């Protein structure tokens, strides 16, 4: 079920078939308002309830439909959750706008859309060449945070794991945007990212320049305090040779190289999942 659900979710996401209003973050933004007031400090119990409730509902639904119609209802639930969690039109549109701005040689627009793509990254005092690498790192990070980590949790823990990860990620982003600290959110996200970031970044080692990437991956992976972003971005940069010159606009040179690496890494993930499905390791 994991492989089929993942393939359907990727197809729907690529074709942008799911309306923005039905995507996970949009649905969760409506759900969390009665539970979490961003204008005041939140209690640990209320934040914990807000985080766990969506995953608990999915777990209950999975239990209720288990075995119905020879498992077809369970399969439909897997597909629905995968599609909801994988669709991110806002990030895709921001990246498309960045590419278009670079192609028409508009540096100001490039910086604007780069900030829109990844607001957590500081782009002050960088030139166009550095911007290309920064956006390339953002692409690698977003590919993990919005796709790779979800795929891994879907494979390992099913729809419940995918929903739990997406919920914690959502509240972490809300906390950063509203500048209101939410108890336990960032710590929980660090824990949830700890193993998947190491697994996913190892895919960069296998998809890129092994010798350079493994020498970067090992110290970070063996350091229990390494952040997920450092794991992903540092290993991605080490795994791919960034071109010094190219026919592409200067803002795109490093970006395209790291985008291609991210695509190879995700293809590797799908290939490994296919083999695991064939040999019965995952269902």
Automatic annotation (TrEMBL):
Q: Does the keyword Cytoplasm apply?
A: no
Give a GO biological-process term.
response to antibiotic
Keyword terms of this UniProt record: Membrane, Transmembrane, Transmembrane helix
Q: Which Pfam families match?
A: AmpE
> Which residue spans traverse the membrane?
41-61, 68-90, 146-168, 202-222, 266-282
- Name the GO cellular-component terms: plasma membrane
Q: What is this protein called?
A: Signaling modulator of AmpD, AmpE
Q: Which species expresses this protein natively? A: Shewanella halifaxensis (strain HAW-EB4)
Q: What is the lineage of its organism?
A: Bacteria, Pseudomonadati, Pseudomonadota, Gammaproteobacteria, Alteromonadales
């Amino acid at each position: 079920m994991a492989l089929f659900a993942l393939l359907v979710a990727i197809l729907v996401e690529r074709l942008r078939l799911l309306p923005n209003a039905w995507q996970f973050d949009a649905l969760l933004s409506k759900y969390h308002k009665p539970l979490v007031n961003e204008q005041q400090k939140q209690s640990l119990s209320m934040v914990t309830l807000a985080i766990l409730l969506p995953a608990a509902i999915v777990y209950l639904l999975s239990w209720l439909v288990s075995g119905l119609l020879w498992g077809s209802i369970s399969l439909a639930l897997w597909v629905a959750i995968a599609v909801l969690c994988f669709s991110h039109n806002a990030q895709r549109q921001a990246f498309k706008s960045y590419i278009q701005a670079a192609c028409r040689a508009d540096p100001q627009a490039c910086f604007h859309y780069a900030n829109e793509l990844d607001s957590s990254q500081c782009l002050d005092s960088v030139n166009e060449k550095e911007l290309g690498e920064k956006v390339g790192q953002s692409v690698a990070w977003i590919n993990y945070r919005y796709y790779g980590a979800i795929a891994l949790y879907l494979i390992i823990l099913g729809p419940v794991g995918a929903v739990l990860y997406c919920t914690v990620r959502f509240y972490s982003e809300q906390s950063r945007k509203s500048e209101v600290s939410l108890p336990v959110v960032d710590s929980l996200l660090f824990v949830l990212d700890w193993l998947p970031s190491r697994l996913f970044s190892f895919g960069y080692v296998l998809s890129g320049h092994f010798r350079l990437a493994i020498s970067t991956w090992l110290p970070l992976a063996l350091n229990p305090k390494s952040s997920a972003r450092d794991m992903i971005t540092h290993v991605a940069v080490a795994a791919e040779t960034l071109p010094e010159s190219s026919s592409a606009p200067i803002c795109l040179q490093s970006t395209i190289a790291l985008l291609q690496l991210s695509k190879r890494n995700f293809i590797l993930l799908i290939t490994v999942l296919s083999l695991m499905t064939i040999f019965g390791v995952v269902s």
